[in-house]
Design goal:
The complex is a heterodimer of chains A (about 575) and B (about 325). Helices cover about 75% and strands about 0% of the residues of chain A. Chain A has 22 helices and 1 strand. Chain B has about 325 residues and is of the alpha/beta class. Chain B is built from 15 helices and 15 strands. In chain B, the strands form 3 sheets. In chain B, strands 3-2-4-14-5-15 form a 6-stranded mixed sheet. A 5-stranded mixed sheet of chain B has the order 9-8-10-6-11. The longest helix of chain B is centred in the first third of the chain and has 18 residues, at about 15-30. Chain B is elongated and about 110 Å long. Classes of the chains: A mainly alpha (about 575), B alpha/beta (about 325).
Chain lengths: ~575, ~325
């Protein structure tokens, strides 16, 4: 608060006016922040209370869990914070890692469940890829000098083992072209690939064995290699892989007992148990923060003890709308049976389409506009016009993009009404301007001095962009993209326009299936005949959508932090 | 699941080893495999896309759920788009297999369908008592005549309650009703408002009947109409008016709609595309399920009048004409 010492006409001479204004301004800003936070918080609490119904439980139930779960975990957290910070980090990671692992396993279980990729396909692809890699390696070993031949093998082997000669797609396209030309010739003769032979064999290994072979073994091998490297002991790595195989082999015994089936057990081992094992091994090896390893035990123990005690005293647990069956079943007209599984799967599949369609286009456009586009003369004026219009497009209402999707993808390209692909592409166009603008900002934030230094060392523009600009801009680009995709997941209006149905009870298994989407389902519930669906089930859907958003934004922050540290 | 031959070869002879591994391997393989050829499901699969009236939607949605419990591979999607909206935007362009309608299909819609080679097949599936509702606090009114409703709902008609009857309050009537895409709107327009007049545009139009209920609930002088199911699930929230069609005041209800004494009773329809019935087995099966169950109490629980046994049999024999006998292969193959 330095005031100029001289200056006759200045109103702040006395010092009082400026201070009052400053304080008033500060208070106003604080009030704005408080208002925003409090209103969002109240809304969230209100919705969560509807979704989880904590007051449907006995007060005794709350008391039991407060004593067995909240008190121990909070005191442990305080202890780590005050006395043993490394242990705190370990506690955080050992609690978070299984959660992430379970999420990963759940995603994979869904992929297998909707048959986006079946276990056989995965297995066949892996075996064929291994055979191809083996052929290439053998060729490199026995004929190390035949470089031209190696090129042929490098491309030929995968074609023979994975695609077939000629690839089925080529034959199909050729036949389609021939029939379009009015010729009645058909190419039927082709050499099947190893992958297709495996897919055609009537007898294949059980699902869990195929999943274990194509997921657990590679993951175990990679992690085992890591263990062998950090321990400088190949035996440790072998022991790790052996352990992984042994735990997987327990699947037919343990899986059904735990209630997740043999395949579920395999997925849990691959995504959750093995990474946690590697992390715990590291903690024990470094002998740092070992106390933190008890934290997950405190949590699990607290839950088990709490459940046992509540059962013993006969305290009724709460009866939330948002429970396991809500996440795993489809919409029903009976409120207690209504679920959210198809919309969750549909929304995630739509996100895949959105990400794959907007990221390359958006980032490419941003790189061109920032690094290559002319900035002077008539062409420069045109580019400025384009940039202004991209800014405008970011503000166009989403209904308009829905209409565009309807006209372009359904009427012109005759894609099926309400399909996952149509929804994804329509919303992809919607967030494209946002992706371009945020990527542009990220690229612009790279200091010009770095570019000039690269040019000064004789780098071409392509080399500068690739090895100087992009590595620094990537965290910003990714953050912007993920935040934009986060907005996309909640878009409802375009889905209404492209004819996404209000009740779809089967999760899509392909990108041209009917799209059930989370916001569409929530909108449909808001007009349901049953008051319990309008209030309770709807709230559960909203909370689920918010959690998915939270996970995505959390991922954005993690990615940003990781890259920022590396740069 | 293989054993390391190096370690074992010291103690056992090679031939024995091969025989032993061969045998155990065969047993292990047999135990660890599944037969993919038998796993082919014989059940139906594919999509059945249902659009159309929001009045019929609760019935279609319930049957979709029931049908999918029996045929888990068939994806029956239901969507309330309004009768007209469904015909115009989805059914006639060929994007939907079935369309619900709370009024018979119009000639212009038949024409539009025809230009896309879509041939609609009509089935009457249930009855509804169109319900005129007012706020719970509107104690001055219990019973209206169709002519009075026409005065209120016609373009340039009564503005205040007192314009209709002198003893009613001198307050503006706030109208909530379905949008023009709705079959309920069409039915009300041609049957109650009358041919000589136009339906007013002064009301708050919505395709969402719950919004109408909410609007009436919030305003003492409001009035609105919707299908009986939306009233029966909100019975405490709004007050339904009786209708005097010349033979005394009759309350809206399933029994009065069934015996025809309620003047605003109307039939509900679903339309199936002929090509879908013939080419898609799952659509035929769904329609069969739909028509059979339209006669059961399920429909009554939702809040509509189930179709009679004769109507059901008539519908089923009509459907039978489009049966291709299951000789057609599954969809798309």
């Amino acid at each position: 608060m330095a005031t100029p010492e001289q200056g006759i006409d200045w109103a702040g001479d006395t010092g009082q006016v400026s201070r009052l204004r400053g304080v008033a301004f500060e208070v106003t800003c604080l009030a704005a922040v408080a208002f925003a936070l409090v209103s969002v918080l109240v809304l969230l609490l209100y919705v969560s209370a509807d979704a989880l119904r904590p007051f449907s439980a006995d007060p005794g139930w709350h008391l039991v869990f407060f004593l067995t779960l909240v008190v121990p975990s909070v005191s442990a957290a305080l202890f780590y914070y005050r006395r043993d910070e490394p242990a705190g980090e370990v506690a955080y990671a050992t609690t978070g890692l299984p959660v992430v692992g379970v999420l990963g396993a759940a995603v994979f279980a869904v992929v297998l469940d909707i048959e986006l990729v079946t276990a056989v396909e995965m297995f066949a692809l892996l075996v064929s890829a291994l055979v191809a890699a083996g052929i290439i390696a053998a060729h490199a070993r026995y004929r190390p000098r035949a470089a031209a031949e190696r090129m042929a093998v490098l491309f030929g082997a995968p074609v023979v083992t994975i695609l077939g000669v000629p690839p089925a797609e080529v034959t199909m396209a050729l036949n389609a072209a021939l029939s379009a030309l009015g010729l009645s010739i058909e190419f039927g003769v082709r050499l099947l690939s190893l992958r297709e032979v495996i897919l055609l064999t009537p007898v294949v290994p059980l699902q869990w064995i195929m999943v274990a072979l194509s997921l657990t073994v590679p993951v175990g091998a990679v992690l085992g290699g890591y263990v062998a490297r950090v321990r400088a002991n190949p035996r440790a790595g072998l022991a790790f892989v052996g352990g992984a195989v042994a735990v997987s082999a327990l699947a037919p015994l343990v899986g059904p007992v735990v209630g997740i089936g043999a395949t579920g057990w395999i997925l849990l081992v691959t995504f959750c148990l093995l990474p946690v094992a590697v992390y715990v091994e590291g903690v024990i090896r470094r002998r740092e923060g070992i106390a933190g390893l008890t934290f997950p035990l405190i949590l699990v123990g607290g839950v088990v003890l709490g459940a046992l005690l509540a059962d013993l005293f006969g305290f009724a647990p709460p009866d939330p709308w948002l429970d396991w069956s809500f996440l795993t079943s489809a919409h029903s007209r009976t409120p207690a049976e209504a679920g959210f599984y198809p919309p969750i799967v549909g929304s995630v599949m739509m996100l895949i389409v959105i990400a794959l369609s907007t990221f390359p286009v958006g980032v490419g456009a941003a790189i061109y506009l920032e690094e290559y586009a002319p900035d002077s003369g008539l062409a420069g004026k045109f580019i400025t016009l384009v940039e202004i219009n991209i800014g405008n497009l970011a503000g166009v209402p989403s209904v308009v993009y829905g209409l565009l999707g309807l006209a372009l993808f359904i009427r012109v390209l005759t894609m099926p009404t309400g399909a996952v692909m149509v929804g994804g592409l329509a919303i992809g166009i919607l967030i494209l301007p946002i992706v371009i603008i945020s990527a542009q900002e990220a690229i612009r934030a790279v200091p010009d001095s770095h570019r000039e230094a690269a040019y000064g060392m004789g780098a071409t523009r392509w080399q500068t962009t690739r090895s100087v600009v992009l590595p620094q801009a990537i965290p910003g680009i990714l953050t912007g993209t993920i935040l934009a995709v986060g907005r996309a997941i909640g878009e409802t209006a375009p889905l209404l326009m492209i004819g996404a149905a209000s009740s779809v009870r089967l999760a899509p298994s392909g990108f041209f299936d009917q799209l059930p989407a989370m916001p569409r389902q929530i909108f449909a519930w808001s007009t349901n005949l049953e008051p319990e669906i309008r209030h309770g089930v709807l709230a559960a859907g909203v909370v689920t959508l918010l959690v998915v958003l939270l996970i995505m934004n959390g991922t954005a922050i993690l990615i940003r932090n990781k890259y920022q540290r590396e740069v | 699941m293989t054993q390391d031959p190096q370690r074992l070869s010291d103690s056992i002879s090679r031939r024995k080893f091969i025989a032993a591994t061969g045998a155990t391997g065969a047993v292990a393989l047999a135990g660890c495999t599944e037969n993919t050829s038998g796993a082919e499901s014989e059940g139906l699969s594919g999509d059945v896309i249902v659009k159309g009236s929001s009045t019929v939607f609760p019935i279609s949605d319930t049957f979709a759920e029931g049908f999918m419990n029996e045929h888990s591979e068939v994806n029956v999607t239901a969507d309330p788009t309004g009768s007209g909206g469904g015909f115009k935007n989805f059914f006639c362009p060929g994007d939907a297999d079935v369309n619900g309608a709370s009024r018979p299909i119009k000639d212009s819609e038949v024409e539009q369908c025809g230009s896309n080679d879509v041939n609609p097949v009509e089935f009457e599936i249930a009855g509804d008592a169109l319900t005129m509702a007012v706020n719970n606090n509107a104690d001055w009114v219990d019973c209206v005549t169709p002519d009075e409703m026409s005065q209120i709902w016609r373009d340039g008609g009564a503005r205040n309650w007192s314009d209709v009857r002198d003893e009613w309050p001198d307050e503006e009537i706030v109208l909530y009703g379905p949008a023009e895409t709705s079959g309920t709107y069409d039915w009300f327009n041609s049957n109650i408002v009358g041919e000589d007049y136009q339906h007013t545009a002064r009301h708050q139009p919505t395709e969402d009947d719950e919004t109408i209920v909410a609007g009436i609930q919030d305003n003492d002088y409001a009035m609105g109409y919707f299908g009986y199911a939306y009233y029966s699930s909100n019975e405490d929230d709004v007050k339904a008016l009786s209708v005097d069609g010349g033979s005394g005041c009759t309350e809206p209800g399933l029994d009065t709609a069934k015996d025809g004494s309620y003047p605003m009773a109307r039939p509900l329809f679903i339309y199936a595309a002929e090509s879908s019935l013939k080419e898609k087995e799952q659509v035929y099966a769904f329609m069969e399920y739909y028509l059979e169950n339209a006669e059961t109490d399920t429909v009554q629980e939702i809040g509509y009048v189930p179709s009679s046994t004769e109507l059901r049999d008539e519908n089923l024999s009509k459907l039978e004409e489009y049966n291709t006998g299951g000789t057609n292969s599954t969809d798309g193959e």
